[in-house]
Design brief:
The complex is a heterotetramer of chains A (372), B (331), C (168) and D (146). Chain A is α+β, with helices and mostly antiparallel strands and 372 residues long. Chain A is built from 14 helices and 8 strands. In chain A, the strands form 3 sheets. Chain A has a 3-stranded antiparallel beta sheet. In chain A, a hairpin with a 7-residue loop joins β7 and β8. In chain A, α4 packs antiparallel against α11 and α5 packs antiparallel against α6. The longest helix of chain A is centred in the N-terminal third of the chain and has 29 residues. The mean pLDDT of chain A is 85. Helices cover 67% and strands 1% of the residues of chain B. The mean pLDDT of chain B is 81. Chain B has one domain. In chain C, 21% of the residues lie in helices and 26% in strands. Chain C has a 5-stranded mixed beta sheet with strand order 1-2-5-4-3. In chain C, strands 6-7 form a two-stranded parallel ribbon. The longest helix of chain C is centred in the last third of the chain and has 12 residues. Chain D has 2 domains: 31 residues; 96 residues, Alpha-Beta Plaits, CATH 3.30.70. Chain D contains 4 helices and 5 strands; from the N terminus they run αβαββαββα. In chain D, a hairpin with an 8-residue loop joins β2 and β3. The model of chain D has no long low-confidence stretch (mean pLDDT 81). The chains are: A alpha+beta (372), B mainly alpha (331), C alpha/beta (168), D alpha+beta (146).
């Protein structure tokens, strides 16, 4: 669909996509003004599962707020917890043992793969192919089993503690992870053969939903959405945190800016995450996972602090304004999908509904994270 | 006269039974097939291998309330599901399962099947249009443009076969292909003419029957991730059930037709023991392929579907038609 | 370095008298009623951002314009309720896509009783949702915003839950 | 013209490759667990709802310090204790867990300095009534002894 389509604003009707719609993966509503099958205008309505996590923070201590972080983005909960513990550690000057940092990086990357696998399955299902979802979930189960054995939970891990971890990993985990890396590499090849090179999928994604660099800048898109538009921005690289500088990995960037570019970015990110995990397992130092002396109650010095980490969907930022008390004065969660979804309204104009929903899928939405 | 009428009546009843049984068990087969492809067991709880699932599903559907939403065009809304089921049942009357097993062989049987086959698009249009639902309406418009686009290459390929056989009579078409698999229309060497495009024709016909029956990857009318459930969004109970069964009945028709036109009907591939069993084996292999395709590919979009039809299928099938005509003239 | 260029450009916004010292400011007392105005260097390792820009509401648009021209993208907009000072603070986070890392925080304060700020949706379209969210939570009215209706809160919400005196 | 046919053939080929893969998957063994008939064993660290650990004498190790109560982010623990006559230590008289609001974060287990609470392995929990999840952990401990 290269040539621009002239739409007739006086012959439109309103189509409510959502809050319950198979393609919105949760409770997102898009009020589309349609001209036939073409979208004339779209207005995204969010907030159906808004839980006011930011107010909750003001009434809880820093440690008590930890479980909330897993409930923002339930698919890559680990990265959000990581951002939070990093923020608090930075402000309170808590030293973290090296082994703990390595384990954090390994588990975050595993969680990133599992999150991308869900996206992969759900995205292909949005496009009408159902089987890849099942294969993806099979691989994801392996990750969840490994993480469950370590953290005790499958989705809302709550595994990190200020200064360390909830508990150490064992040899079973390391061995299992190595096995998983081998298995995942094979599966990724299979996905490429089954899905990536499929002509129907390519026809549906190539050239659909272009997102320009300018659009990214104006909306603050980050993560795979920005990287699919040729922006080499990954918080792990641009603002190295934790032990990421120790790892050798690439940031996949594609210049096309279409849905297929975003698809390829995520598929390659899984491979890069596997590389990080592999290196992490090789370099994993011995030692304790918790500092010897941990402050009983955490109090941050007054001031405000900003920390960003690369979550599964982009840059997750956390701003803590402290007045020296044991609970934050104000805590702001900057969720990546919020910005990524916002550009949908502008970008989807003139698209066919089928393409728009494929485009929406390629943005990788997690509604609880957007609504917070 | 009366004997013929009785014959047809019996045939219709048998056809209904056959269609219903097939439709019900194809749902089971589809779920099993999907399960196996996705490495899960599929339905297992009702009866051995879940074989009692279809009747249980049927009872569930029939006991549900038949909802007619406010504001719908009632008459059309009620007729549509019946119309979705009816043409496939009628089409069965003329399909020859073997030399002897045919309800009523008409010498223009192929034409009749196409006439009734094109009615199913009508049912989707009526169902979608009368539902008073925007999703259904988009879906029905899609279904019609899809049906129009795909009937043309389908007819052209069918005409190619008819030219080779020299008859519209399905029996005759099968007879022309008897005597081993190398005589089937799918292969390029037919009666001395070397028509290299015949395998492509088969493929075109198969793709068109996928599109005609609204099966994935061409299930744009249903497109559950875009249009919720498409034309049957507002249907409940047996209204939905009829649409659902109609889809599977159409699959059976599509498979039968492909078998008759290209795969030699009830002929044994090696010239031994021709009979109804070969026909059954062939159609179920084709149906398995339908299921297999559905669980492998993502869905196309309406414009790539129309592009495929107008830019690839129609030119190739037209070219094949001309080639066949020329070859028939020369040899 | 982009940070120097932007700093110079932003300093131009302030009258010479208000030009602050280049030394790191004392962020330990942000509750002071007379919040200083100016451009401050920050320790990135400690705070997570390089520049802290504190300005009056009428300077906001020109400052944000400078940031847009220098290729910054908008991270988020949020508010802080300084109830002791009777002021609401709007905090704008900006960052850059390239490796010339520079995070800038722009803050501006408005009286709590009548919080009005200019909208920056004209420069950053993506500010629209952030401003609507800030309006939801703090009641800050962004003048000129095209569609300032509740985003995360129910459509009939007339309360602002992140205000410190909000009682559920 | 060449591109036209090339597109058709490469497209068709990719479809056949995909079908080949699903055909292989068709014959691979099943990987799902047929739940009500078979189930997976929970891992050692599985976090179910909390339960009290009995001491050697079968009594809870809890000293009623109230740390878990304070640590809980959602206030779902309420404990009660009393000091019997002539005893120095407090004795636990009630330990109630409101599992409906528990988020299984483990703060209580972390905060306990006496190792008196742990996670149970319960995961088959289903009920239509809210009250079924207001647990009396002390009673549960006594029941488990029998």
């Amino acid at each position: 669909m290269s040539e621009p389509i002239v739409l007739q604003p006086d012959e439109t009707f309103i189509l409510n996509v959502g809050p319950q719609h198979p393609a919105t993966h949760g409770v997102l509503r898009v009020k589309m003004t349609m001209d036939g099958e073409f979208i004339y205008n779209a207005e995204t309505v969010i907030g159906y599962i808004h839980r006011m996590h930011e107010k909750m923070a003001e009434n809880r201590t820093y440690a008590q707020y930890m479980p909330n972080l897993s409930r923002l983005d339930y698919l890559s909960a680990m990265a959000y917890c990581h951002g939070y513990v990093l923020a608090v550690e930075k402000a309170a000057s808590i030293e973290v043992p090296e082994r703990a940092e390595y384990i954090r990086a390994i588990t975050v990357e595993m969680n990133r793969i599992s999150s991308h696998l869900v996206w992969f399955g759900a995205f292909v299902m949005d496009l009408g192919g159902f089987s890849p979802l099942m294969y993806a979930f099979d691989d994801r189960e392996q990750i969840l089993d490994l993480l469950e054995a370590v953290t005790g939970s499958r989705l809302t891990y709550c595994y990190f503690r200020f200064g360390g971890l909830y508990n150490d990993v064992d040899d079973d985990f390391i061995e299992g992870t190595r096995r998983f890396i081998k298995r995942m590499r094979k599966s990724l090849k299979m996905y490429h053969k089954l899905v990536t090179t499929n002509v129907i999928l390519m026809k549906r994604l190539i050239g659909i939903g272009p997102v320009s660099v300018d659009l990214c800048q104006r909306y603050g898109a980050t993560g795979p959405v920005a990287r699919g538009s040729g922006i080499n921005y990954d918080v792990r690289r641009n603002e190295p945190y934790s032990v990421y500088p120790e790892f050798d990995f690439d940031i996949p960037v594609y210049n096309e800016g279409d849905s297929f570019a975003r698809y390829k970015v995520r598929m390659e990110e899984m491979e890069q995450s596997l590389r990080i995990i592999e290196q992490g397992l090789d370099k994993l130092p011995d030692g304790p996972v918790n500092p010897e002396k941990k402050p009983k109650t955490i109090k941050l010095p007054a001031g405000d602090y900003y920390t960003a980490v690369e979550a599964g969907r982009g840059s997750f930022g956390i701003r803590i304004v402290s007045d020296g008390d044991k609970s934050p004065y104000r805590l702001k969660l900057r969720s990546p999908t919020y910005s990524n979804m916002h550009l949908f309204d502008e970008a989807c104009r003139g698209m066919l509904i089928a393409d728009a929903l494929a485009f929406m899928g390629s943005l990788d939405l997690v509604i609880p994270e957007m609504d917070r | 006269m009366s004997l013929t009428l009785l014959n047809v009546l019996a045939a219709v009843i048998i056809a209904i039974a056959f269609v219903a049984a097939n439709a019900a068990y194809l749902v089971w087969a589809e779920r099993k097939g999907a399960g196996f492809i996705q490495r899960r067991p599929g339905p297992t709880e009702n009866g051995p291998w879940g074989l009692l699932q279809p009747p249980v599903d049927g009872i569930k559907l029939m006991t549900k309330q038949l909802l007619i939403p406010g504001g719908v065009d009632k008459i059309i809304f009620v007729i549509a599901p019946v119309l979705a089921m009816f043409p496939s049942i009628v089409s069965f009357v003329t399909i020859p399962f073997s030399d002897t097993i045919v309800a009523h062989n008409i010498n223009i049987g192929l034409l009749m099947i196409f006439v009734f086959g094109s009615m199913s698009a009508m049912a989707l249009l009526m169902g979608g249009w009368s539902s008073r639902n925007k999703y259904s309406m988009i879906s029905s418009v899609r279904a019609v443009s899809q049906a129009v686009a795909y009937e043309i290459p389908m007819l052209i390929t069918a005409i190619t076969v008819v030219m080779i056989a020299g008859s519209l009579d399905l029996m005759e078409i099968v007879h022309k292909q008897s005597g081993g698999f190398w005589h089937w229309n799918i292969w390029p060497f037919q009666k001395g003419l070397f028509n290299i495009l015949m395998p492509a024709s088969f493929l075109i016909f198969f793709i068109c029957s996928l599109a005609e029956t609204n099966r994935a990857p061409f299930d744009l009318g249903e497109a559950e991730s875009e249009l919720v459930a498409g034309y049957h969004t507002e249907y409940s109970s047996m209204g939905f059930g009829l649409f659902f069964m109609g889809e599977y009945a159409n699959i059976v028709i599509g498979a039968c037709l492909t078998t008759i036109l290209f795969l030699g009907g009830w002929d044994c591939p090696f010239g031994l023991l021709p009979g109804v069993w070969w026909f059954i084996v062939k159609i179920y292999i084709l149906i398995f392929t339908f299921i297999w395709i559905r669980w492998t590919f993502p869905r196309t979009t309406i414009y790539s579907l129309l592009n495929l039809s107008w830019k690839v299928l129609i030119p190739i099938s037209l070219f094949n038609l001309l080639l066949t005509a020329g070859l028939l003239k020369v040899f | 370095m982009i940070i120097e260029t932007v700093k110079d450009k932003l300093r131009d916004l302030f009258p010479a008298a208000a030009e602050p010292a280049v030394t790191e400011h004392q962020a330990e007392k942000p509750e002071t009623a007379e919040a200083e105005i100016g451009v401050f260097d920050c320790s990135y390792a400690k705070r997570g951002y390089h520049l802290d820009v504190r300005l009056a509401p009428d300077q906001l648009l020109s400052a944000v314009g400078i940031l847009f021209d220098h290729g910054f993208f908008i991270e988020s907009i949020t508010g802080v309720d300084w109830i002791k000072d009777g002021q609401l603070e709007a905090v704008y986070d900006f960052c850059r896509y390239d490796f010339d890392l520079c995070r800038i925080v722009v803050r501006t304060r408005t009286p709590r009783a009548n919080p009005i700020l200019p909208t920056i949706t004209g420069i950053y379209s993506g500010a629209s949702w952030h401003e609507r969210e800030t309006h939801d939570f703090f009641g800050i009215v962004f003048e000129g915003h095209p569609h300032l209706i509740p985003l995360l809160l129910p459509e009939d919400a007339d309360f602002h839950p992140l205000l410190k005196d909000f009682k559920a | 013209m060449f591109r036209y046919f090339n597109d058709i053939f490469s497209g068709l080929w990719s479809l056949f490759v995909g079908m080949g893969i699903t055909f292989q998957e068709f014959f691979k063994p099943k990987i799902t667990v047929h739940y009500p008939h078979e189930s997976i064993k929970m891992t050692a660290r599985y976090r179910g709802h909390i339960e009290l650990i009995p001491g050697e004498d079968g009594q809870p190790l809890c000293v009623v310090c109230g740390m878990c109560e304070k640590a809980c982010p959602s206030n779902c623990i309420s404990i009660g204790g009393e000091k019997p006559e002539g005893s120095k230590k407090k004795v636990l008289t009630s330990y109630r867990l409101d599992f409906t609001t528990c988020s299984l974060c483990g703060s209580c287990v972390d905060s306990c300095n006496f190792g008196a609470v742990r996670f149970s392995r319960e995961y088959n929990l289903a009920s239509t009534r809210k009250e079924d999840y207001h647990y009396d952990l002390l009673k549960r401990l006594e029941e488990s002894k029998q």
